[in-house]
Automatic annotation (TrEMBL):
It comes from the Bacteria. The keyword Calcium does not apply. It comes from Paracoccus alkanivorans. PROSITE patterns: GNAT (PS51186). PANTHER family: L-2,4-DIAMINOBUTYRIC ACID ACETYLTRANSFERASE, N-ACETYLTRANSFERASE. One of its GO terms (molecular function) is acyltransferase activity, transferring groups other than amino-acyl groups. Residues 103-238 form the N-acetyltransferase domain. Pfam families: Acetyltransf_1 (PF00583). The lineage of its organism: Bacteria, Pseudomonadati, Pseudomonadota, Alphaproteobacteria, Rhodobacterales. Keywords: Transferase. This is GNAT family N-acetyltransferase.
Length: 238
């Protein structure tokens, strides 16, 4: 994963605060999920820094959790040697913005809206993207937007997008169950691309759980390519 994408990945979904523990940077997530509640390695980390990161997690009252890229064999081995086990393998995918702006959207199908409407917040909440995760969106620096998706004359989808140094990252893509597999998520991604183009972002990136086969297939059909992957590491029972 190139440095610009790494920076966009972190900047567009930030923790409430960060603390360095040895060679690890620990995020305080305040209940907003693993992305913002995990520790990631900085350059020069050592095996002995892992307990320091664990202590910072415990000080903040959150589960000790680490995030490691799939090709970081040294870090993965060090974590596993200290009892951590892999969870939720995730793919990082990207596409050139122009690859999603080649088709016009059907009328009244998707809109870029900021701040999010109440119906979008309800859609996120129904998909387990509750107030703690929605609070992450409020911490992101502009430019940001939400995407409202409509189908069969009703609001049925919501997503969040933010730009950092020419890269737009899309987060929290959610479509209500009764309206899934009808193409709405694809149109929402295209709307995100039109918004990204208006704000001079040349690339679009996202992270998607490998367990979500439907989403992975959708993004591949749209032309996204996988550029990296990561997993979380936690001790069973903690």
């Amino acid at each position: 994963m190139d440095p610009a994408l790494v920076q966009a990945f972190e900047a567009t979904w930030p923790a409430a605060e960060y603390a360095d523990a040895g060679g690890f940077r620990v995020g305080r997530g305040l209940g907003a999920g693993g992305r913002v509640s995990s520790a990631r390695a900085l350059s020069g980390w050592k095996d002995g820094d892992i307990p320091a990161a664990v202590r910072k997690h415990q000080e903040w009252g959150q589960r000790p959790l680490f995030r490691a890229l799939d090709d970081d064999d040294e870090l993965v081995a060090a974590l596993e040697a200290q009892g951590f086990r892999r969870e939720n393998p995730t793919a990082i995918m990207e596409i050139e913005t122009a690859g999603l702006t080649d088709r016009d959207l059907p009328p009244v199908t998707a809109f870029a809206v900021w701040p999010p409407m109440a119906i979008q917040r309800d859609i996120w909440t129904a998909g387990n993207i509750g107030p703690a995760r929605q609070a992450v969106m409020e911490r992101v620096e502009m430019p940001v937007t939400s995407i409202l998706g409509r189908i069969e004359d009703r609001a049925a989808g919501a997503a969040f997008a933010a730009i950092h140094q020419g890269i737009a990252m899309v987060h929290c893509v959610e479509v209500l169950p009764s309206w899934q597999r009808k193409g709405l998520a694809g149109w929402m991604m295209r709307q995100a691309a039109f918004w990204a183009a208006e704000n001079r972002a040349e690339r679009i990136g996202l992270a998607v759980s490998r367990a979500n086969g439907g989403a992975m297939a959708l993004y591949r059909r749209l032309g996204f390519r996988e550029v990296a992957g990561y997993s979380y590491y936690a001790r069973p029972g903690e």
